[in-house]
């Protein structure tokens, strides 16, 4: 049965949630049923329960700041407290961010749905504050299990025995498709995911559909997505910009958090902390920092071949440099196709640089076809046209080489600004084109005896781009009566109204994005990192080495069944071809002193026995209960910093501490560090409430004094009269 709560408990006690009004009275307490979430609830049930509560807790179109700072967010604080104390479901953050995406994409009742989307995002990142850093890693990187392969008994895929090792064709969005079977388009996949959540949130009762048999699980399209990937798709920029989340992103970027620790047939993808003593050196090939570094080197060599071919420009045959350029182009196209299949079309489309990649591939293949047909048919025109088409490649290749600059805070902020300004510019140009064609039609018909349609098109285009004098020169030749007034109106519209409006609109777009500069930069950085690290493919070949498995293993797969033998062969080929790269990585880490500093948890603090990966999912719930049953430690006892590791070896005596508490008695003696922080926040909230009451009382006293002084002055004036 759902839990009915009328209060938020700030310090473990009981009592109704009461907010002081400006008059010093108490407003009505909130009466909302908190969701009763069990650890074995499937993802669809979890989403349904949370959507019911969010819909009841947020019924007004309030802003993000109002939900975060005012009494409008009291229901969210109660939900966060409830989840932090009683919920250990591993997909809780995934469900909240999926709901944020659903409400944010809704078109009807936009204000209310935006408020609910903000509420989901606030609950998601506030819930993480109740956890240690190691627990945050587990929650943020937990992948939603595929309902088709999930155990009927409800076992979670965190157990390695139940986790199925993906083959070389497994995609990020759960599509078992081969390299030559493309996934649905980005818009189709977005519609599938949004309809999946909509089917669960249309009903506002949590038990209506629990007993119904559905032919297809509406949340099946979210299989194999973790919380960070959903946040990137849902544009949850506030969530991704939180320090605890960015520490995970940075850990993935530097290779402190890895998804593959060995390169073997039975390897299983699972987030874990990197340990140099046990990890396979070839697993460092999947570190995003090294992937992007080698990508820059590949584009530099690509650019060198590109300029060499254009400078050589042999119209009679394919030169050696041109053969290498085509091989580089084929390797680049195959790598992008594999990345699209692995990441899924929705997540692939979130990176703006992938748009440049698509244009590069399209121009490159157009050049190759024109070049091959021209040489085959001895058509000099097609050969020259192919080189002209190849020259267009520089428009996208040169910026793509310097895409690594988007990791810089300055460029990482500027790129989203240009992206939003480009969207607004395209929308505004629709109005410009409509007005332009209206005047073009009128001037062409009125001045048909003096100027042709082609000449009039050139004149109006030059006028629109600032050559106003051309219009004054030809307006009498168009027509003595209608020409001058029409031309003056067109010049005013194009030179003053439209240009000024466009400038102001682009300025507003720039300021709208730049006000959230940090969030925009961290969003670009997060997408950049996640795109490079979330592939479910065990063996990832750097281009142009990726052409070798395509040529060797793809034909054999058509006639030889069995994925195990192919995985073994791919692993052997990967180690044979990438050994120099791995040696360079190992030398770099040894030179920088990072190879030996890796520990079991790589700087992520918190109790290691209360994570999702542990066998006891109720450990955190028990620690919360023990914390509220035990008295708080005095200042003379041993105190650990919030999120610090638990164990004898990790405890250091403070200024007044000389004894060490055993590991098994630590939580009973000192409580949970995250719960300690929660109590401190609750105490601070209570102090703020008392301060608010004091300010309100002082203001009331001042008003009373003013009224009394005003009455005395009136009485004095009456006495004088």
From TrEMBL:
<feature type="transmembrane region" description="Helical">
    <location>
        <begin position="290"/>
        <end position="309"/>
    </location>
</feature>
<feature type="transmembrane region" description="Helical">
    <location>
        <begin position="352"/>
        <end position="370"/>
    </location>
</feature>
<feature type="compositionally biased region" description="Basic residues">
    <location>
        <begin position="620"/>
        <end position="630"/>
    </location>
</feature>
<feature type="transmembrane region" description="Helical">
    <location>
        <begin position="425"/>
        <end position="447"/>
    </location>
</feature>
<feature type="region of interest" description="Disordered">
    <location>
        <begin position="698"/>
        <end position="721"/>
    </location>
</feature>
<dbReference type="InterPro" id="IPR056336">
    <property type="entry name" value="YVC1_C"/>
</dbReference>
<dbReference type="Pfam" id="PF23317">
    <property type="entry name" value="YVC1_C"/>
</dbReference>
<keyword id="KW-1133">Transmembrane helix</keyword>
<dbReference type="InterPro" id="IPR052971">
    <property type="entry name" value="TRP_calcium_channel"/>
</dbReference>
<keyword id="KW-0812">Transmembrane</keyword>
<feature type="region of interest" description="Disordered">
    <location>
        <begin position="620"/>
        <end position="674"/>
    </location>
</feature>
<protein>
    <recommendedName>
        <fullName>Calcium channel YVC1-like C-terminal transmembrane domain-containing protein</fullName>
    </recommendedName>
</protein>
<feature type="compositionally biased region" description="Low complexity">
    <location>
        <begin position="699"/>
        <end position="711"/>
    </location>
</feature>
<feature type="transmembrane region" description="Helical">
    <location>
        <begin position="382"/>
        <end position="405"/>
    </location>
</feature>
<feature type="domain" description="Calcium channel YVC1-like C-terminal transmembrane">
    <location>
        <begin position="299"/>
        <end position="589"/>
    </location>
</feature>
<feature type="region of interest" description="Disordered">
    <location>
        <begin position="1"/>
        <end position="22"/>
    </location>
</feature>
<keyword id="KW-0472">Membrane</keyword>
<feature type="transmembrane region" description="Helical">
    <location>
        <begin position="484"/>
        <end position="506"/>
    </location>
</feature>
């Amino acid at each position: 049965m759902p839990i009915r709560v009328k209060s938020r408990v700030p310090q473990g006690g009981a009592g109704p949630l009461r907010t002081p009004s400006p008059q010093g009275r108490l407003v009505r307490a909130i009466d909302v049923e908190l969701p009763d979430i069990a650890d074995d609830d499937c993802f669809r049930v979890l989403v349904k329960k949370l959507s019911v509560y969010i819909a009841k807790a947020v019924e007004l179109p309030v802003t993000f700041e109002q939900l975060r700072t005012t009494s409008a967010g009291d229901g969210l604080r109660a939900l966060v407290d409830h989840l932090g104390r009683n919920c250990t479901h591993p997909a809780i953050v995934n469900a909240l961010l999926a709901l944020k995406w659903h409400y944010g994409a809704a078109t009807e009742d936009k204000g209310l749905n935006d408020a609910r989307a903000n509420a989901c995002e606030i609950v998601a990142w506030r819930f993480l504050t109740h956890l240690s850093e190691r627990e945050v890693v587990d929650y943020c990187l937990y992948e939603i299990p595929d309902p088709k392969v999930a155990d009927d008994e409800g076992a979670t895929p965190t157990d390695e025995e139940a986790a199925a090792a993906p083959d070389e064709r497994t995609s990020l969005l759960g599509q078992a498709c081969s390299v030559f079977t493309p996934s649905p388009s980005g818009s189709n996949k977005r519609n599938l995911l949004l309809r999946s959540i909509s089917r669960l949130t249309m009903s506002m009762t949590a038990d209506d559909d629990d007993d119904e048999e559905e032919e297809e699980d509406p949340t099946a399209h979210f299989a194999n997505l973790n919380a960070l990937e959903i946040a990137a798709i849902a544009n949850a920029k506030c969530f991704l910009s939180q320090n605890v989340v960015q520490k995970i992103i940075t850990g993935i970027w530097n290779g402190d958090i890895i998804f593959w620790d060995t390169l073997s047939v039975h390897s299983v993808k699972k987030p874990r902390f990197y340990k140099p003593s046990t990890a396979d050196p070839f697993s460092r090939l999947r570190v995003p920092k090294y992937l992007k570094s080698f990508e820059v080197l590949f584009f530099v060599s690509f650019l060198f071949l590109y300029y060499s071919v254009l400078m050589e420009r042999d119209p009679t045959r394919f030169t050696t440099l041109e053969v290498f350029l085509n091989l580089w182009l084929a390797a680049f196209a195959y790598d992008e196709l594999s990345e699209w299949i692995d990441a899924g079309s929705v997540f692939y489309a979130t990176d703006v640089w992938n748009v440049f990649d698509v244009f590069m591939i399209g121009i490159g293949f157009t050049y190759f076809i024109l070049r091959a047909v021209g040489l085959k048919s001895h058509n000099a025109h097609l050969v020259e046209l192919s080189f002209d088409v190849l020259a267009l490649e520089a428009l996208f290749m040169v910026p793509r080489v310097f895409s690594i600059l988007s990791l810089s805070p300055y460029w990482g902020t500027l790129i989203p600004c240009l992206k939003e300004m480009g969207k607004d510019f395209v929308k505004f140009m629709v109005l410009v084109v409509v007005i332009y064609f209206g005047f073009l039609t009128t001037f062409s018909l009125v001045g048909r005896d003096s100027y042709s349609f082609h000449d009039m098109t050139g004149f109006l285009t030059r006028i629109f781009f600032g050559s106003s004098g051309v219009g004054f020169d030809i307006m009498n030749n168009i027509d003595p009566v209608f020409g001058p007034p029409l031309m003056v109106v067109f010049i005013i519209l194009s030179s003053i109204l439209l240009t000024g409006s466009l400038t102001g609109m682009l300025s507003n777009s720039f300021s709208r994005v730049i006000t959230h500069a940090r969030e925009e930069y961290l969003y670009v950085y997060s997408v950049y990192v996640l795109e490079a690290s979330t592939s479910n493919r065990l063996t990832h070949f750097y281009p142009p080495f990726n052409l070798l498995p395509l040529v060797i293993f793809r034909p054999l797969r058509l006639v030889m069944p069995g994925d195990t033998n192919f995985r073994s062969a791919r692993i052997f080929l990967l180690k044979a071809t990438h050994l120099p790269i791995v040696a360079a990585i190992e030398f770099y880490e040894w030179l920088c002193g990072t190879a030996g500093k890796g520990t079991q948890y790589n700087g992520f603090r918190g109790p290691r026995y209360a994570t999702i990966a542990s066998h006891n999912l109720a450990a955190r719930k028990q620690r919360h209960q023990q914390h509220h049953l035990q008295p708080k430690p005095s200042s003379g006892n041993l105190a650990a910093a919030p999120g610090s590791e638990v164990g004898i070896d990790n405890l250091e005596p403070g200024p007044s501490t000389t004894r060490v508490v055993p590991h098994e008695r630590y939580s009973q003696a000192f409580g949970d560090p995250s719960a300690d922080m929660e109590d401190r926040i609750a105490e601070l909230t209570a102090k703020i409430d008392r301060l608010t009451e004091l300010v309100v009382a002082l203001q009331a006293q001042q008003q009373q004094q003013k009224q009394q002084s005003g009455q005395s002055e009136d009485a004095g004036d009456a006495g004088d009269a």
